[in-house]
Amino acid sequence: MKEEIPKAAWKKFLDDVTEFRAGWLVTLELLDPDYGDQHEADHLPLFTIEYDDEDDTVIVELLKAGDPKEIGLRHLVEHPSSIEADPPAPTEVNSIRIQGPGNVTIVELQPVPELPAE
After folding, report:
1. Which of 16, 37, 58, 99 has its CA 20 to 30 A from that of 29?
2. What is the mean pLDDT of the chain?
3. Residue 118 maps to a domain
4. Model confidence over 25-64: pLDDT tens digits?
């Protein structure tokens, strides 16, 4: 169930998501009424998702496909007004919705598929 995360908890919540979900595969979409919906990433590994309270910005960094050392995408949401998570626990979260000024960023997280046993 999707639940709004209180602003005072954004930094810790997103830091915890990074701790428990780093390496998980991310699909990132931007929903913008002026420019239409934009699919920005499909199954790229999560490097970090964090809230910079000094700049009032959520930062999502995804690794380049096949390169665990290089950032492939850096997505910023400046001056977000709300963050919702489903479910609202960093150890279980599968989806994060970030409301920005005039648009919404959707971050979907999936575990890396296991290789079949030989």
Report:
1. 16
2. 94
3. no
4. 999 999 999 888 999 999 999 999 999 999 999 999 999 9
Calpha distance 86→92 (Å, rounded): 8
| pTM score | 0.91
pLDDT in tens, 73-96: 999 999 999 999 999 898 999 999
Determine, yes or no, domain membership for 116.
no
For residue 60, what is the domain's CATH number?
2.30.29
CB 8 within 8 A of CB 51: no
How far the first Cα of the chain sits from its last, in Å, is 37
CB–CB of 85/46 below 8 Å?
no
Among left, alpha and beta (phi > 0; psi -120 to 50; other), residue 79 is left
- 55 C-beta neighbours (distance < 10 Å), count: 11
Structural domain for 34, as ranges:
3-110
Does the residue 104 lie in any domain? yes
Q: Residue holding tokens 């930094």? A: 11
